[in-house]
Structure formats: structure tokens, C-alpha cells
Amino acid sequence: MHEYKTNRAFRTLVNVGIIDQIGSGLYSIVFLIYAATLPFKTLAVSIASIAWVIPALANIFTGYLADRTFNKRHAMWFSYFVQTILFLIIASLIGRSTKEGIFFFIMALDIIARLLGDYGNSLSTPLMKHIVAPEHMNEATSIGTAIGSLVQIVASALGATLIVALHHQYDLFALLDALTFLVAGVIFFIARHQYDQAESEVHKSVLTAKASRLAENSEAKEGFGTSFKLAMQEFTQNSFLLFMIVAGLAVNLLGTAIDPLSNLIFLHMSSFWFINYGYTIALLDIVFSVGSIAGAVFVNDMLKNTSMVTLLAASMGLLVLVAIDMLTLHNLWILLVLFFSTAYLLGKINPRFNAVIINTVPDDHLAATGGVISTVMMIGAPVGQFVFLTLANVISIPVSLIIYGISSLVVTILILVRGAGRLTKNDPTTARYNEAHV
């Protein structure tokens, strides 16, 4: 927390993000509840549940736009105000009609707001690179991850409780979300001059990079194709980044599949239950979230010098044990320990990787590179969920678990084999490496 306490510009970014996430977390759970009350609730809940995929897959484009935006700090507060207007429109519509057209229009406005949110996050990345020292970047990204996860937990629980207490007045929550965007925008507008120096450094860095490219190729054009090409070059020229994005895709494909798969398993195996089905799902979600937060918060624990190869392999190995427990032991307490341990490791992996990206990728395509990574990672999520849920429903749950366990074991071995040697010894995310290169 040292960086948060001592770095005013970084603290402002975190505080604005907290306010933003409070409103978004409250609205997200309430919108799902609203969708469940509509006459076409199955369709509505399904669409509301997967709507997040669209903005996630569009991160490559929002990242490109963020790189091309000259006045990043002004665009950030302006995006908050546009989101405020969008949610004021949603507040005027939600709960006043059960027609499909109104629902889809509200859903479209929400997706646009999410896209603007991702655009704003991409805008902040280059600024963060110039307000946080490289040796403190891992701590800074870990703090952001931990606080974001904690806020989401609290906001979701609070939203589910308040909607009942307020007699399902969905428009109030849309207004609250609009208010949080407005407050975040006002705070950032007031504090915008904290980022003048950072923005100036970003401009100089971008101009230098463009001049270098023109010197090498006088016919070089600046556009989406060039931005995408530069982003891909980061992976082809950096063996560590290439390994991380390939391994991350595999880990995300399997890691995200265990959540819906476990929900299905618990539905048919009451031996796993803690009191009842609902409490069991909630307990696992809480344990996983707490594990993620703990992993991000305790930056300087005994794993600070453990390589990303080892962390990735260990997280996948734990998923093998999850499959074994679900197949044979049916022990909820073992499962809780495994879920917490996996989440703890993932809570370290994501901030470390983000810190490396911010520190190493040039400013002129930093957001676009982050967008490519986010898009690639998200591709694995629906694929993994579809494959293993289909196996469970079409063939059987045990067959799905066996294939899941074998797949996790294979990925564990491949990560260890491909990542052994130079990638492990020269891991730029470890504390030892950072201390040696300060």
C-alpha cells in the first residue's frame, strides 16, 4: 500500500476506479435480477450473462483508439460524463416496460457504456507508466487488482440485498450508477493537471517512436493495421511475452471452465453441499475471490521470487487435483482449499504480467497491445465453457471431469517443458530480477 499512500496521481486513479466499480457492481447484479423478471426471462438472463463478452472481445479496438487519442486525461473524464448520460437514459426506461425491444435497447446502451469504460482504462495505462516507477509497478497493479476484486464482491452482495429492500426499483440503481460515473468524472476532471507531466512524456515517447519508424520506412502508414502489427511484434520479438500469452490462453480456457462446470456438478451431487446448493456456490465464489485478493495484496510473500512458469504450472496442477476431488473424494473442504490456492496464485500472475507489459511496451502501442492480450485471453473463456459443459450434458459429468483433468495435466507439463531454462532464470516479474535491474 506504500505506492497508494505516497503517490497522489496513482491514488487518484485508484479512487476513481473504486467509485466506478461500485456503481457497475451494483448495477450488474441488479440488471440480472431485472432480466429474470421479464416474460422472456430465459433469453434475457442468457443475453445479460454473456453481454460482457462483446466489450472484452473489442478491447483490441478500444486499445487502438486509446493509443490514437492525443489528450488522454481529457478523454478520460469526458468518457465518464458520456457514461453518466447513458445511464440516465437507462434509468428513464428500465422497469417501465416488459417489451423485448426496450430490453435490447437498454442492453445496447449498457454495452456502449462498458466499451467506454474499457476505453477509459486503456487511456489510463500509458499515464500510469509515467506516474509509477518501474520497480513499483508490480505493487501498483497488485493494489488495483485487489481493490477492484474486493469492491466487486461487496457491490454485488449489496446490490442483491438492496434491490429487495427497495422493492425492485431498478431505475434507482441505474441512477446510482449514473451518479458514480458523474462523481468519478468530476474527481478526475479536478485532478487532471496531476497528469500533465505524464501526458507530455507520453507524447514525446510516441513522437520518437513514429519518427524512428519513418526513418526506417518513409512510406510507413499509421493506422489500425500498423498498430496491430506493432502489438504482434512485441510477442514475436519477446519470448517471455509470447510464452505468457500462449500459456495464458490455455490457463484461461481451462480456468474459466471450472466455474460453470462446478455449478452443474453441485446441482447433481448433494454430497458437496454446504447447507444447500445456493450457499455452496456462494461459499466457493467467496473463497475464490478472497484468494485472488490475498494473492494480489501479499506482493512480498515467499513466492515473490517464484517464476511465472512455476506459478502457472502450479495453478494448473491444482486444477488437476480439483478434478480428482470432484470425481472421487467429493470433499467440499479439500475443494475450498484447492480453490483458494489456485486463486491465490492467479492473484499474483495477473498483476505481475500487467506490470511487465506496462514497463516494456512502448507508449505508441501500449494500449493496443494490452487490448490484443485481453481479446486473446477472452477467446479462451467461452470456448472452454462450451466444450466442457457440452461434454457434461451430452455424455456425462464424470467423462467431462476426466477430460478436464487430463487436459489440465497436459497443459501443466507443457508449461513446465516449454518454460524451463532461460524463461525461468530470466523472469522479469520476480523481485530478484527487478532488484538486479533497478
TrEMBL record:
<feature type="transmembrane region" description="Helical">
    <location>
        <begin position="278"/>
        <end position="299"/>
    </location>
</feature>
<feature type="transmembrane region" description="Helical">
    <location>
        <begin position="330"/>
        <end position="346"/>
    </location>
</feature>
<feature type="transmembrane region" description="Helical">
    <location>
        <begin position="77"/>
        <end position="95"/>
    </location>
</feature>
<feature type="transmembrane region" description="Helical">
    <location>
        <begin position="394"/>
        <end position="417"/>
    </location>
</feature>
<keyword id="KW-0472">Membrane</keyword>
<dbReference type="InterPro" id="IPR011701">
    <property type="entry name" value="MFS"/>
</dbReference>
<dbReference type="Pfam" id="PF07690">
    <property type="entry name" value="MFS_1"/>
</dbReference>
<feature type="transmembrane region" description="Helical">
    <location>
        <begin position="43"/>
        <end position="65"/>
    </location>
</feature>
<keyword id="KW-1133">Transmembrane helix</keyword>
<feature type="transmembrane region" description="Helical">
    <location>
        <begin position="140"/>
        <end position="166"/>
    </location>
</feature>
<feature type="transmembrane region" description="Helical">
    <location>
        <begin position="366"/>
        <end position="388"/>
    </location>
</feature>
<feature type="transmembrane region" description="Helical">
    <location>
        <begin position="172"/>
        <end position="191"/>
    </location>
</feature>
<keyword id="KW-0812">Transmembrane</keyword>
<feature type="transmembrane region" description="Helical">
    <location>
        <begin position="12"/>
        <end position="37"/>
    </location>
</feature>
<feature type="transmembrane region" description="Helical">
    <location>
        <begin position="306"/>
        <end position="324"/>
    </location>
</feature>
<dbReference type="InterPro" id="IPR036259">
    <property type="entry name" value="MFS_trans_sf"/>
</dbReference>
<feature type="transmembrane region" description="Helical">
    <location>
        <begin position="101"/>
        <end position="119"/>
    </location>
</feature>
<protein>
    <submittedName>
        <fullName>MFS transporter</fullName>
    </submittedName>
</protein>
<feature type="transmembrane region" description="Helical">
    <location>
        <begin position="239"/>
        <end position="258"/>
    </location>
</feature>
<keyword id="KW-1003">Cell membrane</keyword>
